[in-house]
Specification:
Blueprint lengths: L7 E2 L5 E2 L5 H4 L15 E2 L6 E4 L3 E7 L15 E10 L2 E8 L23 E8 L5 E11 L2 E6 L5 E5 L17 E4 L4 H4 L12 E6 L6 E5 L9 E6 L13 E7 L15 E3 L1 E4 L26 E7 L2 E6 L15 E6 L4 E7 L13 E6 L5 E5 L6 E5 L5 E7 L14 E6 L5 E6 L4 E6 L5
Antiparallel strand pairs: 1-2, 3-4, 4-26, 5-29, 6-7, 7-8, 8-9, 10-11, 11-12, 13-14, 14-15, 15-16, 16-18, 17-22, 19-20, 20-21, 21-22, 23-24, 24-25, 25-26, 27-28, 28-29
């Protein structure tokens, strides 16, 4: 199977280079033995994070430890994350906490930063000094639910996405959920806890912002059929900076004529006309958006819509997998689609080949980011041991990190997924979260630039 090589660019201007499909399309065994990379992973004497020789890690933050602000304990379920330069060698991290109503360690409610006191999710913000040590750690957003992924804006804020559709009264919540919230890493009180309601109420996963026209693209990770939609939001104040998305705008969903389910497309390079249908009720006051009547021609769905990245004058978005047994029209192990907004065309850029077993990379890949050498870092979220894999610009795969923590259960082979991988602005430090036990690591070493 051929793989289309494409330069990917994240919402904040981070370039991605490499053959993404090689992560999954390689012959069995070829992905296990990296021909390049940093060598085999060495067992960590502390039993936390296995890394190649020459690399070391620092635990920046761990669930249950006291927040340095004194607001309570570090929350659980560390997920999406981004790093922002703060001047003078300092770095700010904004970190999501994908807490549901049953979470053991909530994001503490903070004055001026809490949307719904009964919801346990949100974001925390860390600031690191030039020496890489944490100088502050505080609540940046509270009272939100199931904060999964999100995306950066061109004006250097974080858009945190609630991956839920629960309403006031569900799970004890006092307000509706399923929104996007903007977080200012420099001063969270400037952004507050304001839902961007015009961007829709649904199970958000990720966003990407067109840095030229200000259009915001959004993925929906719905767990049951009908599966999620791919959206665009046309702001009233495009590229207006912090708070501008509150001014509202128009929400539309992708409609590909004659194509109700993206999973049936298996030819790399296949191209289709992309149309946009106005969302009848973005607030989903009575009916979830994906169930709403879009009129003649219907709407286009896809299972497990997750990553969303801007680049090459368009937007890339990912369907992690599709399974007939769960309601999709066809099976696949992953697709990357490219939408060219100027031409109004949608193209299948990559179709992932099957992973032969759970030991190969590609067992439910999740977050992705640029590596200092121009390749990629990919977080794994599947069964068994969990890895961060690197992908070289030539498409070769190598192990970069392994979660050595088995969640403290004697004899158990259960390991927390990785999430939120991101690099410092100078490319010298990789930050990554272990979802459970919630831990944020800083990894340094002989990174290739």
């Amino acid at each position: 199977m051929s793989v289309t090589r494409r330069s990917l660019l994240a919402a904040g201007g981070i370039a991605f280079g490499g053959a993404l499909g090689a992560l999954f399309a390689g012959a069995p065994g070829s992905a296990r033995a990296a021909r390049r990379g940093y060598g085999p992973l060495l067992p960590d004497p502390r039993g936390l994070l296995d890394l190649p020789a020459g690399f070391s890690y620092r635990v920046l933050s761990r669930a249950g430890d006291p927040l340095r602000s004194g607001e309570g304990a570090v929350p659980a379920n560390c997920d999406g994350m981004a790093a922002f330069g703060a001047g003078g060698g300092r770095v700010r991290l904004v970190r999501n906490h994908e807490n549901r109503a049953t979470a053991a360690l909530r994001v503490p409610a903070a004055r001026g930063l809490t949307y719904d006191p009964q919801a346990l999710g949100g974001c925390t913000a860390l600031e690191l000094g030039p020496d890489g040590r944490v100088t502050s750690e505080r609540v940046a957003l509270a009272g939100t639910a199931v904060n999964c992924a999100g995306g950066r804006t061109p004006w250097n804020t974080w858009l945190s996405c609630e991956e839920t559709e629960e309403r006031a009264g569900d799970s004890g919540y006092t307000r509706d959920h399923g929104y996007v919230f903007e977080v200012d890493p420099a001063d969270p009180h400037r952004s507050g806890a304001v839902p961007l309601t015009a961007m829709g109420r649904f199970a958000h996963e990720a966003v990407a912002v067109d840095p030229y026209r200000g259009v915001v693209y959004e993925t929906e990770d719905a767990f049951v059929e009908p599966f999620g939609l791919f959206y665009r939001f046309l702001p009233e104040r495009p590229l207006g900076g912090l708070g501008s998305l509150r001014a509202g705008g128009r929400l539309e969903a992708l409609r590909v004529p004659g194509l109700a389910d993206l999973s049936v497309v298996d030819e790399v390079g296949a191209e289709f006309p992309a149309r946009w249908a106005p969302v009848p009720d973005p607030s989903a006051a009575g009916t979830p958006i994906r169930h709403q009547d879009f009129g003649p021609g219907g709407i286009t769905h896809a299972q497990k819509l997750e990553g969303c990245y801007w680049g090459d004058g368009g937007v890339h978005f990912v369907s992690s997998f599709a399974r007939r047994g769960e309601g999709s029209a066809a099976d696949h192990h992953g697709q990357v689609w490219f939408l060219d907004p100027l031409r109004g065309r949608l193209r299948l850029a990559v179709r992932f080949g099957p992973a032969a077993d759970a030991g190969l990379p590609g067992d439910s890949p999740d977050n992705i980011c640029l590596a200092p050498d121009g390749g990629l870092m990919v977080c794994e979220d599947g069964g068994g041991e969990q890895y961060v894999f690197g992908v070289t610009t030539s498409g070769e795969v190598y192990p970069m990190a392994r979660n050595a923590d088995d969640l403290g259960r004697p004899g158990a082979a259960e390991f927390g997924e990785f999430a939120g991988v991101t690099f410092s602005p100078d490319g010298r430090t990789m930050y990554v979260n272990a979802y459970a036990p919630g831990t944020t690591f800083a990894v340094t070493g002989p990174w290739q630039h």
